[in-house]
Every structure is written in structure tokens, then in C-alpha cells.
């Protein structure tokens, strides 16, 4: 019996970790068989190439590495996580909550491609790579946490680098052009693939964590 896969997606600092943890705790308290996963899987060796990419070993600008090449690093990391950590849980009917997924490649890598036809071709290639070739499951429900870059940047300003623990930013976070185009492209893919958009900002300010979560929870209950 196939399980359910719920993905929380959004640009850097949009509240994915906060909201995926809340959803996990709430469903656990309701007695559901639930597991939380996150990507990149920084604690696993499978994220080695992702770490090299994000710290700039292949080029200091996100555009130095093509959407195709960079996506393949993240896809391998997901394959390793799926196969070794949650395949059997999912296949026995569990509910899996993912903080980022293939959807992050759709947001952050597709944003490197400006021509719409070429971007669509990339998105098709990506779906084939991750869902067919690597055989990881397709999400049942994707939430896009809509936080414009000017607000998310305020949130991430003081944040430590997740890989090194130091204050330098990864090559995505440190690149204003990448942050802007990723946000714009996130709306494009969210509309194209029917993701559920959650407006996290009202009157220029973040809504409260609880307020945002109530939208996510209502939609989840409706769709589970
Ligand atoms: N609705 C909110 N209002 C204010 N601060 C928030 C909100 N949601 C998350 N945060 C804070 O913003 C920071 C980034 O949140 P996080 O959940 O780690 O985002 P992400 O996983 O998308 O990078 C954290 O310090 C978190 O506590
Ligand atoms: C999981 C994943 C992340 N990314 C990008 C998104 C982020 O800019 C960067 C690092 O991810 P992450 O550490 O989740 O960033 P944050 O916590 O700041 O939201 O990698 C991809 O391009 N593809 C992927 O499949």
C-alpha cells in the first residue's frame, strides 16, 4: 500500500523547516504513521557533490553550473535517501513530510533557464530523471510558501551557513539575481504543476507561524 508524500517548498528562509516540523508533530500527535525528511540530506555522504556545488567548488556563481549538472547532484542525494531511509516506510503506507524535494530543483535550477521552451524541456527531463530513472515517488501534495525575497532576505541575514556553521552564505543565498529569479520561477512552476500556494506575508510582514500553519493543516486534512 503506497503512502503519501507531502512536500513543503519555498525559497531560502521562507519557513519550510518551521512548518514541516509543525506538520510532522501535529500528524504524529493525531496518531498517524509519519516521517519527516529533508533535502539536501547534509548529514549523509550522498550530499558530498551538493556541498561542493553550494560552497562554490565548481564556480562561485550558480550559473557557472548548468541546471542539468547541478540537478543531477541533488537527484543522487534524494535517491540515496529514499533507498536507504524511507522507501519501506512509504511503501507500507506511511505519510512522509519532505522539507524540499525534486520541487527545489524545479524552483532553483529551472530558474537558470530564461527561455520558456527550454525551461519546460528541462522540467520534463528532470521529472523523467528523478521519478522514472531514479524511481523516487511523486509528491501527492506540494505547498509553496510564498515569501518575497525582500522579506526572506531579512530572515536569513544573520543565519549561519548550514554546511559550515560559519557566517558565509552558500552560492545561492549570496546571489541576489538567483534569489529573485528563483522566486519568480517558483510562481511559474507552482501554477504549472498545481502546487498549493500559501501567502506567508501580509502588509509586508510575515504572518505568524501559527497562522500560516493553520492554512497548511486545513489543506492537508482535506487532501490526505
Ligand atoms: N512566520 C514566521 N514569522 C517569523 N519568523 C519566522 C516565521 N517562520 C519561520 N521564522 C524564522 O525564520 C527563520 C527561518 O525559518 P526556517 O523554518 O528555518 O526556514 P527555511 O527552512 O525555509 O530556510 C527561523 O529563525 C525561523 O524561526
Ligand atoms: C534540495 C535542493 C536544494 N536546492 C537549493 C535550494 C537552496 O538554495 C540550496 C540549499 O538548500 P537548503 O539548505 O534547504 O536552503 P535553505 O535552508 O536556505 O532554504 O540548494 C536545489 O537547487 N535543488 C534541490 O534539489
TrEMBL record:
Entry GO MF terms: ATP binding; dTMP kinase activity
Domain Thymidylate kinase-like, residue spans: 8-173
Keyword Transferase listed: yes
Keywords: ATP-binding, Kinase, Nucleotide biosynthesis, Nucleotide-binding, Transferase
EC assignment: 2.7.4.9
Any one of the GO CC terms: cytosol
Superkingdom: Bacteria
Catalyses which reaction(s): dTMP + ATP = dTDP + ADP
UniProt record similarity statement: Belongs to the thymidylate kinase family.
Role of this protein: Phosphorylation of dTMP to form dTDP in both de novo and salvage pathways of dTTP synthesis.
Identification of the protein by name: Thymidylate kinase
Lineage, broadest ranks: Bacteria, Bacillati, Bacillota, Clostridia, Eubacteriales
Amino acid at each position: 500500500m503506497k503512502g503519501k508524500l507531502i512536500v513543503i517548498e519555498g525559497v531560502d528562509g521562507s519557513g519550510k523547516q518551521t512548518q514541516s516540523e509543525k506538520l510532522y508533530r501535529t500528524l504524529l500527535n493525531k496518531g498517524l504513521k509519519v516521517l519527516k525528511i529533508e533535502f539536501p540530506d547534509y548529514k549523509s555522504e550522498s550530499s558530498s557533490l551538493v556541498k561542493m556545488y553550494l560552497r562554490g567548488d565548481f564556480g562561485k556563481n550558480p550559473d557557472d553550473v548548468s541546471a542539468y549538472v547541478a540537478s543531477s547532484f541533488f537527484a543522487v542525494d534524494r535517491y540515496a535517501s529514499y533507498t536507504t531511509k524511507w522507501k519501506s516506510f512509504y511503501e507500507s503506507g506511511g505519510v512522509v513530510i519532505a522539507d524540499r524535494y525534486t520541487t527545489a530543483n524545479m524552483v532553483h535550477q529551472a530558474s537558470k533557464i530564461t527561455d520558456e521552451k527550454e525551461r519546460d524541456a528541462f522540467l520534463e527531463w528532470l521529472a523523467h530523471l528523478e521519478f522514472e530513472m531514479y524511481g523516487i515517488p511523486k509528491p501527492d501534495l506540494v505547498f509553496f510558501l510564498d515569501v518575497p525575497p525582500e522579506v526572506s532576505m531579512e530572515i536569513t541575514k544573520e543565519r549561519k551557513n548550514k554546511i559550515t556553521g560559519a557566517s558565509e552564505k552558500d552560492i545561492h543565498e549570496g546571489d541576489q539575481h538567483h534569489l529573485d529569479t528563483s522566486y519568480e520561477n517558483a510562481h511559474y512552476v507552482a501554477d504549472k504543476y498545481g502546487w498549493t500556494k500559501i501567502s506567508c506575508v501580509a502588509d509586508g510582514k510575515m504572518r505568524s507561524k501559527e497562522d500560516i500553519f493553520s492554512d497548511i493543516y486545513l489543506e492537508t486534512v482535506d487532501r490526505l
